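Hi C.,

You asked whether I'd gotten around to modeling the 159-residue construct. I have! Everything is below, sequence then structure, no commentary in between.
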Amino acid sequence: MEQQGYIEVKIDGLVGDKPLKPIDIDITEIKEIISDVETFLHPTRREKAERPHISYQLEEGCARNLFYLPISGFLLFNGLSGEINNRGNIDFLDSKRAEIIDKFQRKEKEKNLEISFYSSLDTKPILKINQETEFFKIAATHIETEFVLYGKVNEEGGK
């Protein structure tokens, strides 16, 4: 059997004046978290079709979403999350992975949450998304276009 590790998406926040608990999270939000983690690990249809088994567990302590997966997926997640944290941006990510991080950031802003990413490798978070973090994907600075001019050419030339 292949070695396994786990990644954790921990969501902290308040519901009213009480700390967030797993019972406070709707099943559509749980489904969305599961889908987002799967897309982050395996962004293309082909990769999703060929992905290894990933199991899921929701635990007490805010909302701890644990994903147990083979060591290859675990290392990929650690590497990408660590690099996001080190660079402070998501420029190097492909568009689907960047969308997932952006989605987590929007959710954090809307609901005033703190989303932390952990792994079985360390007890400290690999990546935190909170009020202070802003990971952007900077758009390309050039635009490629074609245009057609209609009319009469009066002069032509150059130096």
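If it helps when you're writing up: The radius of gyration is 21 Å.

Thanks,
B.
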